[in-house]
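quick one before i forget lol
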Amino acid sequence: MPPRNNPTARQARLGAELRKMRERAGMTAREAAAQLGVTPMRMSHIEIGRHGVSGERLLKFASHYGCTDRSYVDALMMMTGRQERGWWEKYQGAVSQKLLDLATFEWHAQSIHGLQIVHVPGLLQTEAYTRALFTHLPPEIKPPDIELIVDFRMRRREVLDRENPPPYTAFVHEAALRMKVGSRQVVSEQLVHLAASSERSGVAVRVVPFSAEGYVCLGFAMQYLASHVPRLDTVQVDEVHGIVFLDAEEQLAKYRTVLRTLESFALGVEASRDLILSIAREL
């Protein structure tokens, strides 16, 4: 089978983890290729996600590299072979690969924590709110097909509707609740929907209020997507130029600290719901 031209972020992550495993074993790629019976070129393609590996081969790699962390190996096993086709596959070529990767990471996450400063979290947006959000972007940033983006974002919400959804905690700054995205009616309906979402099992919406003393606005939006083992977690950050995925261990540690900080400044779920509905009544 020829190598993939454009591996997904999840495929590339598996390859990167195999490279890290080899490096921890103190082996060069050429040495590992010789011992594992593959060509150096194929080894290179495996480690950048262009060639997949079967579960059987992954176990062989782990054995040769002396990796005894069974939980870690088991989590990697879930990323091997042919993956179950998700709803996002129908959007292949229609939306960016980064959006497809985001939907994949969300679907496979064991839990999701998000932070939004100026907008309501995407997984909890109404259709009208999402449409207004993208409609009022400047022309040079606005996507060519807004309805396609709206439809894709609405489909992303299915991760919270499926059987056994991942626990989801959304930290939202009060500023996001007061942003007039679209009309007052759009914002009002969005806030009511957000409050109702916070009553769902497994969903926690926690507001960081303006009154939180000592809180310094971090100024960025992010999602922390937890895996079966912490070292396979992924952080998604929104930048002006698009989505960025982070997974270096030192980066993950910093974002875990961010989440702990938010825990200490955010209101509880019920107090957050009361504040959301109070703002909705002010509109």
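fyi DSSP finds 13 helices and six strands in the chain.
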